[in-house]
UniProtKB/TrEMBL annotation:
Residues 20-187 form the Glycosyltransferase subfamily 4-like N-terminal domain. It comes from the Bacteria. The keyword Glycosyltransferase applies. Keywords: Glycosyltransferase, Transferase. It comes from Thioalkalicoccus limnaeus. SUPFAM superfamilies: UDP-Glycosyltransferase/glycogen phosphorylase. This is Glycosyltransferase family 4 protein. It holds the Pfam family Glyco_trans_1_4.
Length: 400
C-alpha cells in the first residue's frame, strides 16, 4: 500500500467540520483511500469527531494558533512550519505529499522537494486577497513570500477553477505546473433509488426553492431573498429552504419578518454532510445566486450536489458556472445580481414540471459521469504518476 500525507494547516478549516472546505478535505481523503492509499491527515484544526467511515484514519495534530492580535497569530502560524516539517519526517516516508494551500504554510512542499517525493499543492482561493479583504492581514509581504515559496516548491498546482488558475499564473514560472481540476461530488450519497426518479410535483402542491452553503454575503443571499419575496407574492404555494449557517442568518430572518413571509421559509442551521441529501430531496430547484464579483474563483460544492440530486440548477452567469451548468440542458443561468431575472426563471420552472425533470435528470447524469470525487482524484494521481483505474471500477460496481 502506498502512503499519502494530506496536509491542511489552515486553522480556518476544521477537517471534520461541516463547512464546504471541510467537506472538500473529507471527500478527497475518501477518494484517495478508495484508490488504495494509506492516508495520514496532518491538520491544525479537527473540528469534532470524524465521520464514521473516517474514524480509522491516522491524524497528526499541528500546533494551534493563539487568540488575540492578528500579528501574533501570523507569527505563530509561520513558526508552525517547523512542527509540520518535523511531523512529516517522523511519520514518513510518504509516496505523495498532498497539501491544501494555507496562508502561512510552506513546509509540506518544502519537505516533498527535499525528500524527493511528489508534492501537489491544491489551491482553492487567492487567500492573501481574501484575508486582506475580509479579515485582517498585517504581514502581507511575508504572506506573499510564503505563497511564492510553496507554489515554486510544488511539482504541480491543482487549481479548482479557471479564476484560481489565472491567479496562480501571476506568479512567474508556474504556467506549466498549473492544472485546473474542478470540485466534485460523491455519487454514493445520492443513490439512484432516491434521486433518479423524482416525482413531477409535490403531493402538497408546494414548490420549494433551496440553497445550501455558508450564509455569507458573497453567496448572493440578499438577491435570493428579494427574488423569493417576489415569487411568493405571486405564487403563495412557494417555499424556501436554506441549509447552512453563517453571519448572514440574522439579516435573512429579519428580511423574512419584514416581508411577512417567515412562515414560508425554513432555515435549518448547520447540518452534518450526510444529512444534506435529505434536504436536497425536499427541494424542487437548487440556487447559486452569486452577485457580480470581481475575479470570481469559486467551484461551488453546492452546485455539484444539486446536480447529483437531480435538481435543476439556477445559477448566476459568473466564473466557471456557465461551464458547470449548461443553459437549457442541466439548468438555467441568469445575470448576476438581478433578482427580477432570477424570479422569472423560478416562475418558469414552477410552471413547467417536465422541464424541471428534464434539466434535473441531465444534471444528475453529468455530475455522476464527469464530476465525481473519484474522477477528481484520478486526475490528481495522474499528476503524481499514481493513476489507477481501480477506484472507478469499484464505484461503477456499487452504482450498478
Amino acid at each position: 500500500m502506498w502512503r499519502v500525507a494530506y496536509v491542511c494547516a489552515d486553522p480556518g478549516v476544521p477537517v471534520f467540520g461541516t463547512k464546504g472546505a471541510s467537506i472538500h478535505v473529507q471527500e478527497v481523503v475518501r477518494a484517495l483511500r478508495r484508490a488504495g492509499a494509506e492516508v495520514t491527515l496532518f491538520a491544525t484544526r479537527v473540528g469534532g469527531a470524524p465521520p464514521a467511515d473516517l474514524r480509522g484514519i491516522a491524524v497528526q495534530l499541528l500546533p494551534g494558533l493563539p487568540s488575540g492580535e492578528p500579528a501574533v497569530r501570523e507569527q505563530a502560524a509561520l513558526a508552525a512550519n517547523q512542527a509540520l516539517r518535523a511531523a512529516l519526517t517522523a511519520r514518513g516516508p510518504f509516496d505523495l505529499i498532498y497539501e491544501r494551500y494555507a496562508l502561512w504554510s510552506h513546509a509540506g512542499m518544502d519537505h516533498a522537494r527535499e525528500a524527493g517525493t511528489p508534492g501537489l499543492l491544491e489551491v482553492n482561493a487567492p487567500l492573501i486577497e481574501e484575508q486582506a479583504r475580509h479579515r485582517a492581514l498585517v504581514h502581507r509581504d511575508a504572506a506573499e513570500r510564503v505563497a511564492a515559496r510553496a507554489f515554486t516548491a510544488a511539482d504541480a498546482l491543482v487549481a479548482v477553477s479557471t479564476g484560481v488558475a489565472a491567479y496562480l499564473a501571476t506568479y512567474p514560472g508556474l504556467e506549466r505546473r498549473i492544472h485546473m481540476i474542478p470540485n466534485g461530488v460523491d455519487p454514493l450519497r445520492f443513490p439512484a433509488a432516491r434521486f433518479a426518479r423524482r416525482p413531477p410535483a409535490r403531493e402538497d402542491g408546494t414548490f420549494t426553492v433551496g440553497f445550501v452553503g455558508t450564509l455569507k454575503p458573497w453567496h448572493g443571499l440578499e438577491i435570493l431573498m428579494d427574488a423569493f419575496a417576489r415569487l411568493h407574492a405571486r405564487h403563495p404555494d412557494c417555499r424556501l429552504l436554506i441549509v447552512g449557517e453563517g453571519p448572514e442568518r440574522r439579516k435573512i430572518e429579519a428580511t423574512l419578518e419584514d416581508r411577512r413571509i417567515g412562515f414560508a421559509a425554513r432555515l435549518t442551521g448547520a447540518v452534518a454532510p450526510d444529512q444534506v441529501p435529505e434536504y436536497l430531496a425536499a427541494m424542487d430547484v437548487g440556487l447559486a445566486p452569486y452577485p457580480e464579483l470581481p475575479d470570481f474563483y469559486f467551484s461551488p460544492l453546492k452546485v455539484y450536489e444539486y446536480m447529483a440530486a437531480a435538481l435543476p440548477v439556477v445559477a448566476s452567469r459568473v466564473g466557471d458556472l456557465d461551464q458547470i451548468v449548461q443553459p437549457e440542458i442541466t439548468g438555467l443561468l441568469c445575470p448576476p445580481g438581478d433578482p427580477a431575472a432570477l424570479t422569472a426563471m423560478l416562475e418558469r420552472l414552477r410552471a413547467d414540471a417536465p422541464l424541471r425533470r428534464r434539466l434535473g435528470n441531465a444534471a444528475r447524469a453529468r455530475a455522476l459521469s464527469e464530476y465525481s470525487w473519484d474522477t477528481v482524484v484520478t486526475r490528481i494521481l495522474d499528476l503524481a504518476g499514481r493513476g489507477s483505474s481501480r477506484t472507478s471500477e469499484h464505484r461503477a460496481a456499487k452504482l450498478a
